[in-house]
């Protein structure tokens, strides 16, 4: 993300990875960033950097990190900007086109290759070494996510996985045992039916049309795929992939979940917090939001139930710099600090996301003792990278419109999956 996700971060996450078209991206970055520099009172050159993020709930933690950075770099002033996820990529495209892109900003995996390949991002390999930053401090899969043709363009900030959040009060009232690592798809189906009470408008589970939090996970658990290993073809026509999709449509069909319209009218995490839903496949990023909820005493989380096998999508955000920033050295110094152990420890305690810096995750687990957050780390051995290609949005943007009618049972899901495969293959063929 993480589609790095809190309401502001997820955008319901279908992660709504809005991205630039390749043709538009080629035109970006032609003019310089509009950052300013001036002299401070003691005559030292003072540099102003802009730092753009999309999650307002993380703003206090990011400001804490900025304050710590400025304490050791008094001539560099960092101004944070928050742009909501649903507007973030459109605004970034416009700003890059006009030459007013921020000096440093958040990047996600699905968009990374597109920005890197079109010269929008500042190469960081040499600059990180000059600032004493070592990429060995982060999981290699996250490092590689932001490497293009051997050059590093981003420093991992955080990572996320998805867990089964549940309402203990509803489980107790229905006499259903809390979910744990022994649960399977069938356990979920059976429990969801028992936890549904139409007379109270109470549902056993939420089945929104969301990729990372929902159908990507079950696709991989069924043994299917979204995209081939070489990134050249779709996996949506595979029988196992279709089984992963059907898991969710069937929950709506039998009444265990609200319909698509209800889950569109009310944001899924808020629906869950209302106390009218017993189970919700949500991200590690939801921990901050739920810890501030009036319903937190009733909420807990465990690992995802397994299908034919165990699997969960992993994704992580990175901090990157605009290629045309007027202050590349200062921007690189700030990114190096954003990737430091000190910044990771602040992230762990205050941002509600799992820091990417190795061996700093326990502080995140301890940050919300009301929940069993270790579940998200327990899933690491069977994580699957977030599906992506050079122009991910060209096909990912087709998922929701293609599957919406089938999700509600108004169209055939197998036919929709085959349609999606065709759309995806057509988009992938243009990346060559």
CATH class category label of the largest domain: Alpha Beta
Q: Which fold name corresponds to the CATH topology of the largest domain?
A: D-Maltodextrin-Binding Protein, domain 2
What is the domain tally?
A: 2
Strand content: 5-15%
Work out the number of β strands: 16
Overall geometry: globular
CATH superfamily of the largest domain: Periplasmic binding protein-like II
Low-confidence residue ranges: 1-35
How many helix segments? 21
> Quick check: average pLDDT?
89
Cα Rg: 22 Å
How widely separated are the two ends?
24 Å
The assigned structural class equals alpha/beta
The profile of the biggest β sheet is: 6 strands, mixed
Helix content: 40-55%
CATH architecture of the largest domain: 3-Layer(aba) Sandwich
Can you describe this structure?
With 432 residues, this protein is an alpha/beta fold. Helices cover 42% and strands 15% of the residues. It contains 21 helices and 16 strands. Strands 1, 2, 3, 4, 7 and 14 form a 6-stranded mixed β-sheet that branches.
């Amino acid at each position: 993300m993480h589609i790095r996700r809190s309401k502001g971060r997820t955008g319901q996450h279908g992660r709504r990875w809005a991205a630039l078209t390749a043709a538009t991206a080629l035109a970006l970055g032609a003019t310089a960033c509009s950052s300013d520099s001036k002299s401070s009172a003691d005559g030292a050159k003072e540099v102003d950097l802009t730092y753009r993020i999309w999650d307002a709930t993380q703003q206090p933690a990011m400001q804490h990190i900025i304050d710590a950075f400025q304490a050791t770099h008094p001539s560099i002033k960092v101004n944070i900007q928050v742009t909501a996820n649903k507007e973030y990529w459109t605004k970034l495209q416009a700003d890059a086109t006009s030459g007013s892109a921020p000096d440093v900003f958040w990047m996600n995996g699905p968009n990374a290759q597109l920005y890197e390949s079109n010269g929008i991002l500042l190469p960081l390999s040499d600059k990180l070494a000059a600032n004493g930053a070592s990429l060995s401090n982060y999981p290699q899969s996250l490092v590689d996510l932001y490497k293009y043709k051997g050059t590093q363009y981003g420093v991992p900030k955080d990572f996320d996985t998805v867990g089964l959040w549940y309402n203990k009060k509803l489980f107790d009232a229905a006499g259903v045992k809390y979910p744990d690592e022994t649960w399977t798809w069938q356990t979920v189906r059976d429990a969801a039916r028992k936890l549904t009470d139409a007379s109270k408008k109470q549902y056993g589970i939420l089945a929104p049309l969301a990729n990372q939090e929902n159908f990507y996970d079950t696709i991989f658990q069924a043994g299917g795929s979204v995209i081939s290993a070489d990134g050249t073809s779709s996996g949506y026509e595979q029988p196992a992939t279709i089984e992963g999709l059907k898991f969710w449509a069937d929950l709506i069909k039998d009444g265990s979940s609200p319909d698509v319209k209800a889950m569109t009218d009310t944001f899924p995490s808020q629906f869950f917090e209302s106390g009218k839903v017993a189970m919700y496949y949500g991200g590690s990023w939801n921990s901050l939001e739920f810890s501030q909820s009036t319903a937190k005493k009733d909420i807990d989380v465990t690992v995802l139930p397994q299908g034919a096998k165990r699997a969960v999508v992993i994704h992580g955000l990175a901090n990157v710099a605009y290629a045309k920033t007027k202050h590349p050295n200062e921007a690189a110094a700030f990114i190096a600090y954003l990737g430091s152990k000190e910044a990771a420890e602040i992230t762990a305690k205050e941002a509600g996301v799992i820091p990417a810096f190795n061996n700093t995750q326990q502080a995140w687990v301890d940050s919300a003792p009301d929940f069993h957050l270790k579940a998200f780390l327990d899933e690491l051995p069977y994580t699957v990278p977030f599906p992506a290609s050079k122009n991910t949005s060209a096909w990912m943007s087709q998922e929701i419109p293609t599957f919406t009618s089938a999700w509600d049972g108004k169209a055939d899901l197998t036919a929709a999956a085959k349609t999606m495969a065709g759309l995806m293959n057509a988009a992938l063929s243009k990346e060559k």
